[in-house]
Automatic annotation (TrEMBL):
<feature type="domain" description="Carbohydrate kinase FGGY N-terminal">
    <location>
        <begin position="6"/>
        <end position="109"/>
    </location>
</feature>
<dbReference type="InterPro" id="IPR000577">
    <property type="entry name" value="Carb_kinase_FGGY"/>
</dbReference>
<keyword id="KW-0808">Transferase</keyword>
<keyword id="KW-0418">Kinase</keyword>
<feature type="domain" description="Carbohydrate kinase FGGY C-terminal">
    <location>
        <begin position="234"/>
        <end position="400"/>
    </location>
</feature>
<dbReference type="GO" id="GO:0016301">
    <property type="term" value="F:kinase activity"/>
</dbReference>
<dbReference type="Pfam" id="PF00370">
    <property type="entry name" value="FGGY_N"/>
</dbReference>
<comment type="similarity">
    <text>Belongs to the FGGY kinase family.</text>
</comment>
<dbReference type="InterPro" id="IPR043129">
    <property type="entry name" value="ATPase_NBD"/>
</dbReference>
<dbReference type="GO" id="GO:0005975">
    <property type="term" value="P:carbohydrate metabolic process"/>
</dbReference>
<dbReference type="Pfam" id="PF02782">
    <property type="entry name" value="FGGY_C"/>
</dbReference>
<dbReference type="InterPro" id="IPR018484">
    <property type="entry name" value="FGGY_N"/>
</dbReference>
<dbReference type="InterPro" id="IPR018485">
    <property type="entry name" value="FGGY_C"/>
</dbReference>
<protein>
    <submittedName>
        <fullName>Sugar (Pentulose or hexulose) kinase</fullName>
    </submittedName>
</protein>
<dbReference type="InterPro" id="IPR050406">
    <property type="entry name" value="FGGY_Carb_Kinase"/>
</dbReference>
C-alpha cells in the first residue's frame, strides 16, 4: 500500500475537522477540535474569535500527523475548506480590528455590507485587508504575510467573482475601494498557493507540503458524497440540493461554483428537512415502520416549520401548507416525508430546466438517509436510484480536492475527482407507485400560488 496521504481540513462553525486519505479516497486518520462559541448580540451581529481557528488547526494537525507518523504515512498536500461568507478585517499591520464576522451575521446581507458595519463599529479609517477563513490559516501555516495569500473563487463568490477572469466584479472592487479595503487576489480551486513553513513542518514531523486553494464547505460536502458528477441531496436539519452543470447557471435561490476546469457545482437550500418532523424525533423508528405500511398519505403538505422559503420556492410569505388535517400522527409523518420528497423532485426539475445535468443515481448524505421509507419514497417519485453514501463530510471533500489538486494535470480537478471511489451503504431502486404520483400532482397544485 502506498504510504502517501492527502490532508483535508474543514473549518465549520463550531469545530475544525481534519482527515487524511490515500489515493483511493480511503480515510486513514482523523482529528477534530472545538472552536470558540459564536457570540450573537442585539445589533444582529454574529462573531467568533478568529484566534480559535489557529489554535484548533494547530491541534488537529498535531493529532492527525502523530497518527500518520506512527503508521508510517507521509503527507503530500493540504487543502482547507470553510464556511462561505465568514471573514476578518485587518489593519495595516494585519492584526484583526474585530472578531470574525460570521456567514450569518445579521448586520447586512453580504460580506462587504458586514465589513462596512465592522468598520463603523471600530471607528477606524483604514486601510484594511479583507481575509476569508482559509487565507488566515494558510498565512499562519506558511508563515507568510496575509496579503500574499490569495482566496479561491469559491470562497470569494459571495463577494462577486467573474470566473472567466478569476477576478472580482467591477462593482465589488469599487465598493471595497470606497471602504478603503484591499481584497485578496482570486485564484481557481486546486491552485498551489503556499507551502507549510519549514518550522511548522518540523514541529509536525512532516515534509513542508504544498497547500492548495480549496472550495467552500457546501461544495466539499457535495464532492465527498457525489464526486465530480453526482447529484447530491443532503438531508440534515434542512435540505440542500446540489447538481453538476457544464455552464455557469444561476436563478432564484440557486447559483454555481466553478470546479476547474469544466464543471460547475450548482445548488440551493430549502428550509424544510429533518426540522419538519422534529416533534416526532423520539418516535422515528416506530413511525418509519408504520409509515411504510400505510402507503401514500391522504393529504398533501409543504412541511415548512417557519415563514419564508429560499429554494425551490422563493417566498417571504409562504408558511406550512396542508390540504387537510391529518387523521393521525402516522399519517402526518407520512405526509411530511412525501412533502420532503416532492420538494426534492420539484427542485431537481427546476435545476434541470435551468440547464443542469442530473446523475442517474441521486446520492444522499445526512440523518434523513437513515429513514428507509423516506429513501424509498424519494426513489419512487424521482424515478431514480437513491444511494446512501459512506463518504460524507466537508473534511472528506476537502481531502478529495487535496488529492486531486496534487496529482492533476494542468487545472483539471474534475478528471482526477472522477477516479476516486465513492463508497455506498445502500441503494433504493425506484418502484411504480401511482398513488404517490397522484399526490405529487396535488402537491404542485398546493404550491402553485407561490411559484
Amino acid at each position: 500500500m502506498s504510504k502517501s496521504v492527502f490532508i483535508g481540513i474543514d473549518i465549520a462553525t463550531s469545530n475544525v475537522r481534519a482527515v487524511a486519505i490515500d489515493r483511493t479516497g480511503t480515510p486513514l486518520a482523523r482529528a477534530s477540535e472545538p472552536l470558540a462559541q459564536v457570540i450573537k448580540r442585539e445589533d444582529k451581529s454574529a462573531t467568533q474569535d478568529s484566534k480559535s481557528w489557529i489554535t484548533a488547526v494547530d491541534k488537529v494537525l498535531t493529532h492527525l500527523c502523530k497518527q500518520l507518523i506512527e503508521e508510517g504515512f507521509i503527507p503530500q498536500s493540504l487543502l482547507i475548506s470553510a464556511t462561505s461568507g465568514t471573514f476578518i478585517l485587518c489593519d495595516k499591520n494585519y492584526a484583526p480590528i474585530a472578531p470574525a464576522a460570521m456567514y450569518n451575521d445579521g448586520r447586512a446581507s453580504d460580506p462587504l455590507g458586514r465589513a462596512a458595519a465592522v468598520i463603523e463599529a471600530s471607528k477606524q479609517s483604514g486601510p484594511f485587508h479583507f481575509a476569508n477563513t482559509p487565507e488566515v490559516l494558510i498565512a499562519h501555516l506558511s508563515e507568510q504575510p496575509l496579503p500574499q495569500i490569495p482566496t479561491d473563487s469559491s470562497h470569494g463568490l459571495k463577494m462577486g467573482v467573474d470566473f472567466k477572469s478569476s477576478d472580482y466584479l467591477v462593482a465589488t472592487k469599487e465598493l471595497a475601494n470606497s471602504l478603503n479595503i484591499t481584497l485578496p487576489k482570486v485564484v481557481l480551486p486546486g491552485t498551489k498557493i503556499a507551502t507549510i513553513s519549514n518550522q511548522i513542518a518540523a514541529k509536525l514531523g512532516i515534509p513542508p507540503i504544498p497547500i492548495y486553494a480549496g472550495m467552500t464547505d457546501g461544495c466539499t460536502a457535495q464532492i465527498a458524497a457525489g464526486g465530480a458528477t453526482g447529484s447530491v441531496t443532503s438531508l440534515g436539519t434542512t435540505m440542500v440540493i446540489k447538481v453538476v452543470a457544464d455552464s455557469n447557471i444561476s436563478g432564484d435561490g440557486f447559483y454555481s461554483h466553478l470546479l476547474p476546469s469544466n464543471r460547475y457545482l450548482l445548488g440551493g437550500a430549502s428550509n424544510i428537512g429533518g426540522v419538519s418532523y422534529q416533534k416526532y424525533e423520539a418516535e422515528l423508528e416506530s413511525l418509519n415502520k408504520k409509515a411504510a405500511e400505510i402507503g401514500a398519505a391522504n393529504f398533501i403538505t409543504y412541511p415548512l416549520p417557519v415563514t419564508g422559503e429560499r429554494f425551490p420556492i422563493k417566498s417571504s410569505s409562504i408558511t406550512n401548507l396542508m390540504s387537510a388535517k391529518p387523521e393521525s400522527d402516522v399519517m402526518e409523518y407520512r405526509g411530511i416525508l412525501e412533502g420532503i420528497a416532492f420538494t426534492e423532485k420539484y427542485a431537481y426539475d427546476l435545476l434541470q430546466k435551468a440547464g443542469a445535468k442530473l446523475s442517474q443515481t441521486i446520492y444522499t448524505t445526512g440523518g434523513g438517509g437513515k429513514s428507509k421509507v423516506l429513501s424509498q419514497i424519494r426513489a419512487n417519485i424521482l424515478n431514480r436510484p437513491v444511494a446512501i453514501t459512506n463518504t460524507t463530510g466537508s473534511d472528506m471533500g476537502a481531502a478529495f480536492l487535496s488529492l486531486a489538486s496534487h496529482i492533476k494535470s494542468g487545472d483539471d480537478l474534475t478528471a482526477e475527482l472522477m477516479k476516486i471511489n465513492i463508497s455506498q451503504i445502500e441503494i433504493f431502486k425506484p418502484q411504480q407507485d401511482e398513488a404517490l404520483s397522484s399526490n405529487y400532482q396535488k402537491y404542485l397544485t398546493l404550491i402553485s400560488p407561490y411559484i
